[in-house]
Amino acid sequence: MGLFTFIKEAGEKLFGGKDAQVATPAAAAPSQEDLNARAAKAIEAYIASQNLGASNVQVAFDGTQGKVTVKGTAPTQGAKEKVTLCCGNVASVTSVENLMDVTHPEPEAQYHDVVRGDTLSAIAKKFYGDANKYPAIFEANKPMLSHPDKIYPGQKLRVPPLAR
């Protein structure tokens, strides 16, 4: 699958914002190692909350590079790809290396970086030649997408091969 790149400023705000700041004196400020561990746990919790069926998920985060490495087992290629998106569509993450095993391999999806003005219909037209095939892209990105109209610039979406 390789290394996937993401836009650092786009995505879920799981850590690093006001809510993640700890009120501690400067002398007791958390180390980069502590911050990386907290970020990794936040990403693991986010993956778990998506109910993708992945097991033994282990996330490592390198805040200096914005890189996530994820290991574990996914039941399908689609679930593995969704884990990649869970990790990458998080603010402060610029790349994801997904080293997960897949129980039931299937063809890999393509990916699309959402730009201003994109709609799922326009993306379906680009990849499938038919705007009415947008539900396939929506389904391929659930549960991270809650509604077909709720996509944002900088987000990366899976575009699976169409079932024949």
Could you describe the 3D structure shown?
The structure is a single chain. The protein is an alpha/beta fold and 164 residues long. It has 2 domains: 106 residues, no CATH class; 56 residues, Roll (Membrane-bound Lytic Murein Transglycosylase D, Chain A). It is 28% helix and 23% strand. The chain contains 4 helices and 7 strands. The strands form 2 sheets. Strands 1, 2, 3, 4 and 5 form a 5-stranded mixed sheet that branches. Strands 6-7 form a two-stranded antiparallel ribbon. A hairpin with a 4-residue loop joins strand 2 and strand 3. Helix 3 crosses helix 4. The longest helix is centred in the first third of the chain and has 18 residues. The chain is globular and about 55 Å long. The two termini are 23 Å apart. About 5% of the residues have low confidence.
